[in-house]
Specification:
The complex is a heterodimer. The radius of gyration of chain A is 23 Å and the shape is globular. Chain A starts with 5 loop residues before the first helix and ends with a helix. In chain A, β6, α5 and β7 form a beta-alpha-beta unit. In chain A, the strands form four sheets. In chain A, strands 16, 17, 18, 19, 20 and 21 form a six-stranded mixed beta sheet that branches. Chain A has a five-stranded antiparallel beta sheet with strand order 1-2-5-4-13. A five-stranded antiparallel beta sheet of chain A has the order 3-14-15-12-11. In chain A, α6 crosses α8. Chain A has 19 helices and 21 strands. Chain A folds into four domains: 104 residues, Alpha-Beta Complex (Sulfite Reductase Hemoprotein, domain 2); 151 residues, Sulfite Reductase Hemoprotein, domain 1; 93 residues, Alpha-Beta Complex (Sulfite Reductase Hemoprotein, domain 2); 144 residues, Sulfite Reductase Hemoprotein, domain 1. By secondary structure, chain A is α+β, with helices and mostly antiparallel strands. By secondary structure, chain B is α+β, with helices and mostly antiparallel strands. Chain B has one domain. Helices cover 25% and strands 28% of the residues of chain B. Chain B contains three helices and five strands. Chain B has a five-stranded antiparallel beta sheet, sandwiched between helices. Chain B is globular. The mean pLDDT of chain B is 95. The chains are: A alpha+beta, B alpha+beta. At the A-B interface, α14 of A face α2 of B.
Chain lengths: 555, 102
């Protein structure tokens, strides 16, 4: 993975020193909050309901064991012993004190991490497929492109004060695991008919109050054109995007109002000017970056230990069946460590758990970890013979929950338990749903079903693209939860449809139960997933299950 | 017709700690909502907010929050303010933890 060079180290040290001085000037009164706020946001520091919150970028979700241990250290030394992994591959600390934040940033810099551009109207942390570099279905490792974009976008002078934030995702798998179509701009690595690798560009996706599915702006770009093309897109939007209304400022609205063809013409015109200014330094840099991401030499050994454990231990087998994915090397597997133990906060890991995962990565996983937008942690390269030992260790630390992709593997934003923007709580709803379905011992029978919960219309919990989406609102001073069905976060992306009136806090879990009961009753067989059933039968059976009284009235 | 004025308290976050604080009748800040000044007059509320904002060097984001008189002092009327005076529901952190340690 990428290691900072002297330039990176010096840049970050200078930036952290600047922020330290800014904090001092805020404390001594030389800066007002109005002056200080944009400065702290540029460095990832929010003020939330109960405390400050520091959002640290985990670029394209990649970490090594030393970095994970440092995240644990921050949690223990300056927070309350845990961190929260987010849907944009960041980690958030919920309880830092203002005076401590400069020390936290310096500690992060020691392991090549930072919080720059995790907030504000800038290009945010670049996200990627969490199976990058390991997936069997990948054209090439997408992370060198993601790192190139990170370096280009960090402190880019043209893009520090845009009309709104701009989110980029990169993926190279046949399957989309990075929610590409929900991003302002997405890069999808593809191969053309001639077998050449190139890049498809999508723009205009986004969730929030006006959810939109991204559209293909350019079908195939050669590598030499990629960065100047992205710069052209952001540059065009930065000039024509609306600044009169922050709710209409994102590129999805620009695309919606002006049309994709007009945007394409403007981007092409801009590209004609921008392209000649890229003299090839970007390509040279790309080659240097790519060397950092060379795949490890995968060891070769017998996988008998795995087969024996699989046959002998039903708990291990259940975990292996749900939490492992196909690796490009047949003797290896990708391990998804669920940070969704039933009844716990989705995405929260204690400092001890972080250290355990770091140790496992170091001992068995070629020193690599990934954070997924689904708020889980990945060991991307594990030889199958090591899986029983890994599972045993995970079990000791509450990390062996076998629920990846199941109903209790819920995405939930922090909601009104932490977030100043939230209109209702998300976390306790997720905890209760997971606990309820665990008690019923139904989730393996239910199969693949994604629930995604947001505590406000900004949709950090991706509720629009959940198979079952839940949106918490404030209705006349009371928490109320709207349900959407049929959302899809994959390449077949779809925005869910609202079922009807919302449900009170104590009604939402029973409502989800009724939806699932309806699904189990009407699915064709065990292999038909919830989403497939919904697509076959539509909304009506689920509405009937959710609102039995309304059906009676009509009858 | 304009909506009738409902009682308010002034609340903010502490600059250094970041935690929730309330403005008292003595122009000081308390971490206990029950010790806050309950303001029942609209014009007085605006003046008190200006008084609170004079202390912006050590507080962040003062605003008027709905409250009602209770047996021990002001109480929240909206669930957001209830969470702010208590702490998150997933961990025993925030004010509930601080009060338990008194």
């Amino acid at each position: 993975m990428y290691k900072y060079n002297e330039f990176d180290d010096a840049f970050l040290a200078e930036r952290n020193a600047q922020f330290r001085a800014q904090v001092e000037r805020r404390i001594d009164g030389s800066l007002t909050e109005d002056e200080f706020k944009p400065l702290r946001l540029m460095n990832g520091l929010y003020l939330q309901l109960h405390a400050y919150m520091l959002r640290v970028a985990i670029p394209y979700g990649t970490l090594n064991s030393a970095q994970m241990r440092q995240l644990a250290l921050l949690a223990e030394k300056w927070d309350k012993g845990y961190g929260h992994f987010t849907t944009r591959q960041n980690i958030q600390y919920n309880w830092p004190k203002l005076r401590d934040v400069p020390d936290m940033l310096d500690a992060l810099a020691e392991v090549n991490l930072h919080a720059i551009q995790t907030s504000g109207n800038t290009i945010r942390n670049v996200t990627a497929d969490h199976f990058a570099g390991a997936a069997a279905d990948e054209v090439e490792d997408p992370r060198p492109i993601a790192e190139l974009i990170r370096q280009w976008s960090t402190d880019h002078p043209e893009f520090q004060f845009m009309g709104r934030k701009f989110k980029i995702a990169v993926s190279a798998g046949e399957k989309d695991r990075a929610v590409l179509k929900a991003h302002d701009l997405a890069v999808r690595t593809v191969r053309n008919d001639a077998g050449e690798v190139g890049y498809q560009i999508l723009i205009g996706g986004g969730l929030g109050r006006t959810p939109m599915i991204g559209k293909v702006l350019n079908d195939f770009l050669p590598r030499a054109d990629l960065l100047p093309y992205i710069e052209s897109v952001v540059s065009v939007w930065n000039q024509i995007g609306r600044r009169d209304n922050k709710y209409k400022a994102r590129i999805k609205i620009t695309v919606h109002e002006m049309g994709l063809d007009t945007i394409r013409e403007l981007v092409d015109a801009r590209f004609a000017k921008v392209r000649p200014t890229f003299g090839g330094a970007d390509l040279q840099l790309f080659d240097e970056i790519t060397e950092h991401f060379a795949a490890p030499t995968f060891r070769s050994a017998s996988t008998d230990a795995y087969s024996w454990a699989y046959d002998a231990d039903p708990v291990f087998r259940s975990w292996a069946d749900t939490n492992l994915s196909a690796h490009k090397d047949a003797d290896h597997a990708i391990v998804t460590i669920s940070i969704k133990a039933h009844g716990q906060t989705p995405g929260d890991a204690s400092a001890e758990q972080m250290r355990v995962m770091a140790d496992l990565a170091e001992q068995f996983g070629y020193d690599e970890l990934r954070i997924s937008h689904e708020q889980n942690v990945i060991l991307p390269h594990v030889h199958k013979s090591d899986l029983p030992a890994i599972h045993a260790k995970l079990k000791e630390h509450g990390l062996a929950t076998a629920n990846v992709g199941l109903i209790s593997d819920i995405i939930a934003c922090p909601g009104m338990d932490y977030c100043a923007l939230a209109t209702a709580r998300s976390i306790p709803v997720a905890q209760q749903i997971a606990t309820r379905f665990d008690e019923m011992k139904l989730e393996h029978d239910i199969g693949h079903l994604q629930i995604k919960i947001s505590g406000c219309i900004n949709a950090c919990g991706h509720h629009h693209v959940g198979h079952i989406g839940i949106l918490g609102l404030d209705r006349a001073g009371v928490e109320n939860y709207q349900i959407t069905l049929g959302g899809d976060a994959t390449w077949d992306a779809a925005i869910g449809t609202r079922t009807g009136p919302g449900f009170a806090y104590d009604e939402i879990v029973p409502a989800v139960e009724r939806i699932v009961e309806a699904y189990l009753a009407i699915r064709e067989d065990q292999d038909e997933t919830f989403l497939q059933t919904y697509r076959r039968v539509g909304m009506e059976p689920f509405k009937a299950a959710l609102y039995p009284d309304a059906v009676k009235k009509v009858a | 017709m304009a909506r009738a004025f409902t009682p308010k308290v002034i609340t903010a976050n502490d600059l250094l700690e970041g935690d929730v604080i309330y403005f008292t009748a003595e122009d000081s800040w308390t971490r206990d909502l029950r010790e806050a000044e309950l303001i029942t007059d609209e014009a007085h509320a605006q003046l008190r907010l200006l008084d609170a904002e004079k202390q912006n060097i050590k507080i962040v984001g003062a605003y008027l929050a709905d409250a009602k008189a209770g047996a021990e002092g002001p109480e929240p009327t909206h669930f957001r303010e209830e969470f702010r005076r208590t702490g998150p529901s997933n961990y025993f952190h925030g004010k509930q933890e601080a009060q338990a340690n008194v």
